[in-house]
Amino acid sequence: AICTEYFSAVATEKAQKEKEMEEEAARGAAERAAEGDDGKAQHDTRKLSKPDRMRKVQKHKDNGTELFKGKNYIHATKAYKEALTHCSHFFDLSPEDQEEVNGVKLSLYNNLALCWTKLDNFDQVFKCASEALALEDKNTKALFRRATVFEKRKQYDLA
C-alpha cells in the first residue's frame, strides 16, 4: 500500500511538472510573439546600425547563456545560432568594429561547441570548433573542444 501511494505521488508530481513546463513554454512563446522575436533572425534584412544590431546579438547570446545555465542545451544552441545569424547582417564595419564582431562570433562558436558537447553531437562540436579556429587559430577552448572530438573518434594522432 505504501509503494502504491509513493508511485501515485511520483506520477502526480511528474504530471504537475509537465503541466508547468507546458504553461511556461506557452508563456515564452507569447512573450516572444509580443516582442516581435519569432526566431526569424535570418529574415531580418534591415540595415540596422551597428549598436542596434549588436544589441540583438547580445540579447540572443545572453538568452543562450541563461538557457545553458538551466541545462536547456537545445534551446541554448538555437539562441546562439540566432546571435550568429545577426552577426552576419553587419555592414560597413570599420576594422575595429569587425574585430569586435569577430570576438563575439568566436565566443558564440565556442559556446555552441560546448552545447553540442553536452548533447553528444560531436560532428557539430567539430564544426563549431573549426569555425572558431578559423577566426582565431590558437584559441585554446576551440582547440580543446576539437581535440575532444578527435579523442572520441579515436583519432589520437590528430588530438
Describe the protein:
There is one protein chain. This protein is mainly alpha-helical. The chain has helices spanning 2-35, 50-69, 73-87, 95-118, 122-135, 140-152. Helix 2 packs antiparallel against helix 3 (73-87), helix 4 (95-118) runs antiparallel to helix 5 (122-135) and helix 5 runs antiparallel to helix 6 (140-152). The longest helix has 34 residues, at 2-35. The model has no long low-confidence stretch (mean pLDDT 87).
Keywords:
mainly alpha; 159 residues; flat
Strand content: under 5%
Overall strand count: 0
Tell me the Rg in angstroms.
Answer: 20 Å
SSE class? mainly alpha
H/E element order:
HHHHHH
Number of helices: 6
Secondary-structure topology with pairs:
Elements: H1 2-35, H2 50-69, H3 73-87, H4 95-118, H5 122-135, H6 140-152
